[in-house]
Write a structure and sequence with these properties.
Structural class: mainly alpha
Shape: flat
Number of helices: 5
Strand content: under 5%
């Protein structure tokens, strides 16, 4: 596919995906089909989607901490047993 056409497909849809992600999550449901529509292979589309999601989450976390808002550490500590349970369940599958 033409690179300009791919750019015109991916950019607006990824902007919309970032907006949806910032409000409530689930932007990957928009950006992943956009990458595949632009002609990326499924493996490349998933990897690019994961990179964009990780970058967006990292930047928003850094801004969250920079603005002086308290990070909910108590919530993180209370959820550790659930992480362990989920990990052990997925390994047992």
């Amino acid at each position: 596919m033409n690179s300009l056409l791919s750019f015109l497909i991916i950019c607006p849809l990824n902007f919309l995906a970032g907006l949806v992600d910032s409000i409530g999550g689930g932007g990957g449901l928009i950006s992943l089909p956009a990458f595949m529509l632009a002609g990326l292979s499924p493996h490349a589309a998933v990897a690019t989607n994961k990179l964009a999601s990780t970058t967006g989450t990292s930047v928003s976390t850094a801004r969250y901490c920079k603005n002086g808002w308290p990070f909910p550490v108590s919530y993180a500590h209370s959820s550790v047993p659930f992480w362990e349970r989920g990990s052990s369940c997925s390994q047992a599958m």
